[in-house]
Design goal:
The chain has 281 residues and is an alpha+beta fold. A seven-stranded mixed sheet has the order 1-2-3-4-5-7-6, with helices on both faces. It has a two-stranded antiparallel sheet with strand order 8-9. Strand 4, helix 5 and strand 5 form a beta-alpha-beta unit. The longest helix is centred in the middle third of the chain and has 19 residues. It is globular.
């Protein structure tokens, strides 16, 4: 980066203390298209890119009693970071929050979150916005658990998908780098520094919508909250199974495909039913 480019970048730096964090929790939120412009410019690979209608559909489940009765309590939301000087959305985290009741009902865990996407405007990277969005997610997960009757400080976990460069084609790697501006190996190291570790099972995300393919080049990562992330080495297979059931049926399938017949889900379900614990590395 030249000195002039670096000076321009520094001049754009937002004041971290002035960033505004707010949540999109409804399909009709007027900020949803602005979020999507940021998101779609970073997630360009077809297999992993959600549509704007897909985001709206998933957010609508927050108010659907039948969904909450069968898969809840759950909340789908998008947290956005806005630069007050320009009104521009410069960062966002999209995730779902789940609870399992008290820890004895959830294999030692009371709640979990599936972090679907974390994206930062390329002009504003390196200023700690991603870390602040993650910290905000951890706090909201604990608050969501307490809201649904779980005692403070109970064990929780957060999962996310990460592209595995060794399973991507040359074109996918090139497209990923061009859009995200981050080398996939550097991205993996960024997440590991923040306590995320790869779960040791054969993961595959089912297709996000009609005409799309399952995403076979991603791994599933976990970070434990309320436990020692450096020494914990496993998660009960039954807990991970329930977490994935909610993620696949609600966030991925959106009840627009028959997930009970989806071969990638059925294979993973069978795998997790057969093992008491899933290790991490």
């Amino acid at each position: 980066m030249s000195e002039t480019e670096n000076e321009r970048r520094i001049s754009r730096r937002p004041d971290p203390g002035n960033l505004r964090f707010s949540d999109i929790v409804a399909a009709g939120d007027v900020r949803l298209p602005d979020f999507y412009r940021l998101y779609a410019g970073i997630f360009t690979l077809e297999e992993e890119r959600e549509s704007l209608d897909g985001f709206a559909r998933v957010l609508s489940f927050n108010d659907e009693r039948a969904v909450q009765a069968e898969f809840g309590p759950l909340r789908e939301q998008i947290t956005i970071a806005t630069d007050p000087a320009s009104g521009r959305i410069i960062g966002a985290a999209n995730y779902a929050l789940y609870t399992f009741g008290e820890p004895e009902h959830g294999g030692g865990f009371a709640a979990s979150s599936q972090l679907n996407f974390l994206c930062i405007d390329p002009d504003f990277r390196g200023f700690g916005i991603g870390g602040r969005l993650l910290a905000d997610l951890y706090a909201k997960l604990e608050a969501f658990a307490r809201e649904h009757g779980v005692r403070a400080g109970a064990h929780t976990f957060v999962t996310c998908e990460q592209n595995n460069p060794t399973r991507m084609s040359a074109q996918q790697l090139a497209d990923d780098l061009a859009a995200a501006g981050i080398d996939p190996y550097d991205r993996m190291r960024w997440w590991r520094r923040r306590g995320f570790r790869r779960l040791q099972f054969d993961y595959c995300q089912p297709a996000l919508g009609a005409g799309q393919e399952p995403c076979r080049y991603i791994d599933f990562y976990v970070r434990f909250e309320g436990r020692d992330s450096e020494t914990d080495a496993a998660i009960p297979g039954s807990v991970l199974l329930e977490h994935l059931r909610r993620f696949f049926y609600v966030s991925v399938g959106k009840f627009e495909q028959d997930m009970s017949r989806e071969p990638n889900w059925l294979r993973q379900k069978k795998q997790l039913l057969a093992i008491p614990y899933v290790g991490v590395d």
